[in-house]
């Protein structure tokens, strides 16, 4: 039932009549820039991509924006790598968008290194001409099946 990520994603949704793909392109750019910001470990730069009400949902529960940014600002949480394994699947629904991709990253937290391979889903809202993430959800990617 899982998706290995080894296939090309469908083309992005387009508006009726072959309208522009500007929202798709702006979101794809924002996702790339946000990943680059995370690797800088600069809390202010990371925050620029997040709405005030942003939360992340992971296996440990819900973490709000202030708690996450506090960890980054203190240096207790750092990232040294963040790479997309699949192209983002972007679906725009008016002023809301859902972006899903498989991501690998290397983080350091509490003096320990964590290498993650995750499926991420981010929900963005467009406000004042800018896309800001309001929700991130991460799910560990399943290990590839082994031949027995």
Features of the shown structure:
single chain, 148 residues, alpha+beta, 3 helices, 7 strands, 23% helix, globular, disordered N terminus
What does this structure look like?
The protein has 148 residues and is of the alpha+beta class. It is built from 3 helices and 7 strands, in the order ααββαβββββ. Strands 1, 2, 3, 4, 5, 6 and 7 form a 7-stranded mixed sheet that branches. The radius of gyration is 16 Å and the shape is globular. The relative contact order is 0.19. The model is unreliable at 1-19 (pLDDT under 50).
What secondary-structure arrangement, pairings included, does this model have?
Elements: H1 22-40, H2 43-47, E1 50-58, E2 61-64, H3 65-74, E3 77-84, E4 89-93, E5 96-109, E6 112-127, E7 130-140
Q: Provide the gyration radius in Å.
A: 16 Å
Q: Please tally the β strands and state the result.
A: 7
Largest sheet: 7 strands, mixed
General form: globular
Whole-number mean pLDDT: 87
Order of helices and strands: HHEEHEEEEE
Unreliable segments (pLDDT under 50, ≥5 consecutive)?
1-19
Assign the structural class, choosing from mainly alpha, mainly beta, alpha/beta, alpha+beta, or little secondary structure. Answer: alpha+beta
